Amino acid sequence: GVFILDKFSISEMFKNFADYECEGSSRLYEFLSRQIAKDDELLELCAFARDGQPVPNLFLGAVHYLLLKGKKHALKEYYASIVQNPKELEEVFIHFKDFCQIYRNEIISILKSKLVQTNEVRRCAYLYPTFCYVYNKAKKPLSLIEIGTSAGLQLLWDQYCYSYGNYEVYGNKLSNVHITSEIKGGNTPLLFHESPPVASKVGLDLHISDLGDREDYLWLKSLIWPEHQERLLLFESAASHFNENPVKLIEGDGVALLLDVAKQVPKDTAICIFHTHVANQISEDLKYELIEKIKMIGSTREVFHVYNNMWDRKLHLDYFIDGVEHKVTIGDTDGHCRWFYWDLN
């Protein structure tokens, strides 16, 4: 549906963003979000964002982007991504607001044209055990289809290496992308020492981010929060990895393209359709259409659907084997995958 963004709902978005996303993760964004939520002029500026976009990420990303591009302003002194010792936050909002007034037109043009496409490479930390589980059920190589792939970095999950707080390393031990995360709860997932075999990969997105394009690359960096040094390093090493192992990326509506893409997948493989932190940008109608299409594929093929943010925040796996549908909940995950729960036995 069409959302007419009003100041009240945008204000609520920033309050929720501060409470649920930033607290304990980014002091700068938490502080700014609470101030923006009370500022009419900035809320009006945010209303230029495209429908269905997470406004706080987009707005803060736009400002970060202009700073990373080298705009001269006192605001940069507060960003750990730009200066080594950022200033204390007391006066940051005065500078932030001034920056937004000076660069208002450029911010509006970013809000109207850009999409939030965070390539959170660390989410592969829960994809790895999930695909180990899938391979154990399917007993055949996997064919990956990612919806909302952005730059395709998560399609390389089988090329990265992983550790989960013990001394073991899983996946591709030679990889320069080493992902760590904590598994919470009482259960331990089955983890193969070597990545499960992958037969084919394709990524679908309304707008493919091209890592070889300086603007696209900079925008993806802008979406990484200023304090998150480790995320930035993971992104940069995964990006260089991608340039050496490019994956087929198709621009277009992932749900509309799905059946055609699935038809081209090698026959003796299990189809794995996955998307993380994408479904909150998909309309209700389209969600049901996606589920229907997966059912259609499941009537003739083994298909596994891994997703979150569809109906709730948890990570889910629905799958069809011999035409029979199974649904399991994997558990809660942290947005930046510092930890996740594994609720499966």
Keywords for this structure?
single chain, 345 residues, alpha/beta, seven-stranded mixed β-sheet, three-stranded mixed β-sheet
Task: List the topology elements.
Elements: H1 7-22, H2 27-36, H3 40-46, H4 55-68, H5 92-102, H6 104-113, H7 124-138, E1 142-147, E2 161-163, E3 170-171, E4 178-180, E5 182-184, E6 198-205, H8 214-222, H9 229-244, E7 248-251, H10 254-263, E8 270-275, H11 284-298, E9 303-307, E10 315-321, E11 324-331, E12 339-341
Parallel strand pairs: 1-6, 1-8, 2-4, 5-12, 6-7, 8-9
Antiparallel strand pairs: 2-3, 9-10, 10-11
Written account of the structure:
- With 345 residues, this protein is α/β, with parallel strands linked by helices.
- It is built from 11 helices and 12 strands.
- β2 and β3 (170-171) form a beta hairpin.
- The longest helix has 16 residues, at 7-22.
- The two termini are 39 Å apart.
Mean pLDDT: 94
What's the count of strands?
12
Helix residue percentage: 25-40%
Strand fraction:
15-25%
Principal-axis shape equals globular
Given as residue ranges, the uncertain stretches (5+ residues, pLDDT < 50) are: none
Structural class: alpha/beta
What is the count of DSSP helices, taking H or I runs of 4+ residues? 11
- The rounded distance between the terminal residues' Cα atoms is 39 Å
Task: Give a short overview.
The chain has 345 residues and is of the alpha/beta class. Helix content is 39%, strand content 17%.
